[in-house]
Amino acid sequence: METILAPSDDNAIDRRIAQRLRALRAERNWSLDDLAKLSGVSRATLSRLENAAVSPTASVLGKLCVAYGLPMSRLMHMVEEDFAPLVPRAAQPLWTDASVGFRRRSVSPPAQALSGEALECELDAGARITYDASPRPGLEHHLILLDGQLQITVDGQRHDLQPGDCLRYQLFGASAFVTPAHSGARYLLFIV
User: Fold this and answer.
1) What are the domain boundaries of the chain?
2) CB–CB of 8/52 below 8 Å?
3) Full-prediction pTM beyond 0.85?
4) Contact of 110 with 145, CB cutoff 8 Å
5) Do 117 and 106 form a contact (C-beta atoms < 8 A)?
6) Of 135, 139, 141, which is closest to residue 190 (Cα–Cα)?
7) What is the pLDDT of residues 48-96, one digit of tens each?
8) Mind giving me the DSSP string for the chain?
9) Which of 57, 59, 25, 27 is nearest to 43 (CA)?
10) Which pLDDT score, from 0 to 100, does residue 81 have?
11) Rg value, the chain, Cα
12) Which residues contact 22 (CB under 8 A, 6 or more apart)?
């Protein structure tokens, strides 16, 4: 599912994501049909994404990142501004998937040449995000739950987190992030 943008919507990050997705496909000489087969995302949706007619969901971006072999955070860094060693909170890029109630703030200053990064994420109560595969097998995550409750399933193993808990894992397969109906979650995610 994707979020339809109103014609007057001036969402710069969605336009930059669209441009980057189009460039990634062109760099590989893939047709829309090729990418659709590799990602499991329909050709029509891919076309709308690349033309910034829709805003991508976290799930769709996850599938595209698997096809391109990129962590989602790396894709997001590709569309963010040039590196600055200090980024005030007000200037940290915030990406939202309103269809599932997910907000992702890039806390680390964007740097294509640097690999580690920190993200601040929020999921609304009753939210569920699933990813079919890791964009890069063995990607190391350190997730610290700040507020709320969060259930994470990584490669078939379920973890129920409470505030202050830290889950450290390497991602090889599918994962899911779920909040209960009565509580959302706010967490920090460090990717190495």
Assistant:
1) 3-78, 84-191
2) no
3) no
4) no
5) yes
6) 141
7) 999 989 888 888 988 998 998 888 877 877 776 555 667 789 988 888 9
8) --EEPPTT---HHHHHHHHHHHHHHHHTT--HHHHHHHH---HHHHHHHHTTSEEPPHHHHHHHHHHHT--HHHHHHHHSPPP-S---GGGS-EEEETTTTEEEEE-SPP-TT---EEEEEEE-TT-EEEESS-SSTTEEEEEEEEEE-EEEEETTEEEEE-TT-EEEEEE-S-EEEE--TT--EEEEEEE-
9) 25
10) 56
11) 16
12) 50
The two tokens of residue 9 are: 């919507």
Indicate the angle between helix axes 58-68 and 12-27, nearest 10 degrees. 30
Q: Topology of domain 84-191, per CATH? A: Jelly Rolls (2.60.120)
What average pLDDT score do residues 6-23 get?
71
Instruction: Report the CATH superfamily, name and number, of domain 3-78.
Output: lambda repressor-like DNA-binding domains (1.10.260.40)
pLDDT at 14 > cutoff 90: no
pLDDT in tens, 90-146: 988 888 999 999 999 988 866 665 677 899 999 999 999 999 888 788 889 999 999
Decide whether 3-78 matches 84-191 in CATH topology: no
